[in-house]
User: Fold this.
Amino acid sequence: MSDAWRFTETPYNIRFFARNCDLKRLGCRSQQMDASEREQYGAAIHGDREAFEMIIRTHSRTLFAIAYGILQNREEAEDVVQDSLVKAWKMRWRVRDPEKFPAWLSMIARHRAHDAFRKRRPVPFTHEAIETSDAHMPETSAMDQQLHSALATLPELHRAALTLRYFEEMDYRTIVASTD
Assistant:
């Protein structure tokens, strides 16, 4: 194995794989949209509900991963995805290039998640609230808790990229397009 492919966990390496120009340096080309995808995005932009529904099916998991990476809360992330899709439907006419539609959709989800995060109000904890929430919380393994706490310490872009790569099993090109 050559030294160029060795991976050490440094912030530089994470940024290295998150940038499109650096992916090109590795010999990867940005993913080109085929004609049928371009046509589907174009139809959705022009108001075709069926095309938009297919886009929802295609991108909802990605949008959820982005929102969850920011909010770390399943219910809030689901609400953000729904709000993002409603906004995308209402504002779809703003997208002039169908190839930019997925990135535009991801940007809406990211902005909505940030808005939801800013609107959070700290809730004072009482012993009763903690006991009640513990009773309803399913058992999670220590490793899951460590993973979530480690992800929470990362910057939002890195957390989203790791969530998309390892939980949603996306390739690097798609992650770059979703997080730009």
